[in-house]
Amino acid sequence: MAIFKTKPTSIRETRATPRRGILLVDDEPDILDAIAESLSDRYRVETATCGEEGLDLLARLGASEIQAIIADQRMPGMSGVEFLDRARCLYPEVGRIVLTGYTDFQAAVQSINQCKASAFLLKPFDRGDLLNTIEKVLHEADLRNQAVRNLTLKGIAGSRMRAFLQSHATITDSDATVLIQGETGTGKELVARALHDNSHRAGKPFVAIHCAALPETLFEAELFGHRQGAFTGAHRDRKGRVNQARGGTLFIDEVGEIPPSVQGKLLRFFQSGEYQRVGCDMVGHADVRIVAATHRNLREMVEEGSFRQDLYYRLNVLVLSVPALRERLGDLQELVEMFLMKYSKGAKTLSRQALMVLHGYDYPGNVRQLEHCIQRACALCQIGEIGPHHLSPEILEHFGRHQPLDDGAYRFEELTNAELKAARALVSKHAVEKLERTFLKQLMARFDSIVAAARHAGMARAYLHRLLTKHQLRPPKPSSERSTEQARASSRSINPTK
Ligand SMILES: Nc1ncnc2c1ncn2[C@@H]1O[C@H](COP(=O)(O)OP(=O)(O)OP(=O)(O)O)[C@@H](O)[C@H]1O
């Protein structure tokens, strides 16, 4: 397929920064060579023919050698956008361009909105387009990296989460409205605080209003304030959150819950900075940056008619989508360490098995759920390490239902009855059967007599027999029988014709 439109180039060629590194990834060798050649007089070009190879190369060379990546969207295995997204986790500071045909245009636009790619180029393009896009992406990356160097992310655990914020570093200091999307408990408020702490408003107030917690009747008064006597219970004048946030940031959490009766007034405030306290004719003015958050799909709410379209457009300026915890389980260990420090002052540690159980869960309540689980475990665990039995019942239950115990993922280093009893308490009823079977199989493999196995496990022989019968497992064969069988088998294999 032709990659360049025509012969180069009507576009003014700019002088590039001396020899910066570009990583090119395309599964078609001819195209790879053509692009590499067209760039080689300006950049150091590295090439890879698939995403996996590109990631290896990037990990080896690092961001000091590679400043921008260009990847074709259509590649077998990992797509271009997938590759760029994984490259972003490794080195968020590197600029990322996706090459796309017209049919994948939507995917390319979406990748930009989700910050997986920094720019896209529609095929066929000419050399001028390519050079301009590279220079633009490199320039933006320089600005972002400058912002990243100045970014403080205190209290935020998890390299994936920090990379997410770093990839949005340039918007922290803007006054534009930000809409943070994400499931409940993913850390949206933490992101809002990070935006505020890294803006020129950092010395001014950060004021949050949690819309889901407010009754409709009090909403307007809470947001804009009220005069004494404005309604029953308004015993004195009160400033609203907008007023408290003057010069700083107003964080509107669960913005989708704002009652329709207040949405119009909020829109007016967004557009002009003007508002009126309840029961007061005077118009106030406040300069605040708006950061809103929601776990709901506002676009769908607009279609249903429960959210004003004009307010939606006003909010939908810069959109950050915070990934769910199950999509970034690589952050889990660091989060656990942070919460152990918070709730036990670092006195408690987590056992390997407990960490494995935590890794197997999907966290519908995200980081908040994990935090509560560790807080509870710290309270329950009096001595020693936190084990699986200190974790929340729903996490253990899930582990019991989904973890294949037979595949050796869950090992019992000490094959004793006491260990079996302890393990029984850890997992749900549903998993006990699997657990017993695993226990018995490992025990049978280790001992060649039921007497020795029962003695080691600290259980009565009759009980071990009953367990074996229940699971339809055969008792171990004495070693003399085993060796006779082995001898028979080997003689058969020496002379297969017999
Ligand atoms: N990356 C993180 N590092 C440390 N703590 C975190 C992180 N993400 C979330 N938390 C903690 O998890 C809890 C929930 O976070 P937060 O309130 O910001 O979530 P949210 O998405 O705003 O939730 P909701 O949608 O319910 O309002 C908080 O205690 C917060 O401190």
Automatic annotation (TrEMBL):
Region (Disordered): 471-498
InterPro entries assigned to the protein according to its UniProt record, in alphabetical order: AAA+_ATPase, AAA_lid_NorR, CheY-like_superfamily, Homeodomain-like_sf, P-loop_NTPase, Sig_transdc_resp-reg_receiver, Sigma_54_int, Sigma_54_int_dom_ATP-bd_1
Biased composition (Polar residues): 486-498
4-aspartylphosphate, modified sites: D72
Domain Response regulatory: 21-138
GO MF annotation list: ATP binding; DNA binding
Keywords (A to Z) from UniProt: ATP-binding, DNA-binding, Nucleotide-binding, Phosphoprotein, Transcription, Transcription regulation
Species per Swiss-Prot/TrEMBL record: Sulfidibacter corallicola
SUPFAM superfamilies: CheY-like, Homeodomain-like, P-loop containing nucleoside triphosphate hydrolases
Gene Ontology process terms (BP): phosphorelay signal transduction system; regulation of DNA-templated transcription
Record's protein name: Sigma-54-dependent Fis family transcriptional regulator
Top-level taxon in the UniProt lineage: Bacteria
Ranges of residues in domain Sigma-54 factor interaction: 161-379
